[in-house]
């Protein structure tokens, strides 16, 4: 019995660490979130914190996964207009610049197949393109997007646009990422289609 309780406590502590890390990184950025600061925030030593994740990079990958789950839940609330949900997730990123910075930095570093975040980003992009292409197909079939749209290519372009706009926003915070992405989505609409993105 003690083992099961210990396991549950470990899971709870891991979730606490991830939630705290999300807040600290969102506020202080990728470079401003030291293992010491994160450990102090959850009442652990640095070694104790890393016991749950292995390395700082592994922790950061889990932070991004946690952020993704939250974003998916938020976007999922737009059942009737899922492309609007996608744009609103990007809009919400303006309130968490540190997480955008973490994502952008790790995505570049993860181009190295040996990086701990490599598999995360490969899988994330594959999943995004697949889900977005399916969503675009359904919108084309419903007459809401133009029949000229290639769903697979458009899905890849939407991912590229969202990530590229986030980098531009990090450099120029006055840039409205969501407005630009919303414009791109509108370009895909079929002539005369109502706005149920």
TrEMBL record:
InterPro entries found in the cross-reference section: BetI_C (IPR039538), Homeodomain-like_sf (IPR009057), HTH-type_TetR-like_transc_reg (IPR050109), HTH_TetR (IPR001647), Tet_transcr_reg_TetR-rel_C_sf (IPR036271)
UniProt keyword Transcription regulation present: yes
Species per Swiss-Prot/TrEMBL record: Agromyces rhizosphaerae
DNA-binding region per UniProt: 34-53
Record's keyword terms, sorted: DNA-binding, Repressor, Transcription, Transcription regulation
Origin: domain of life: Bacteria
Any one GO molecular-function label of the UniProt entry: transcription cis-regulatory region binding
Pfam families: TetR_C_6, TetR_N
Keyword hit for Metal-binding: no
Domain HTH tetR-type intervals: 11-71
Protein name: TetR family transcriptional regulator
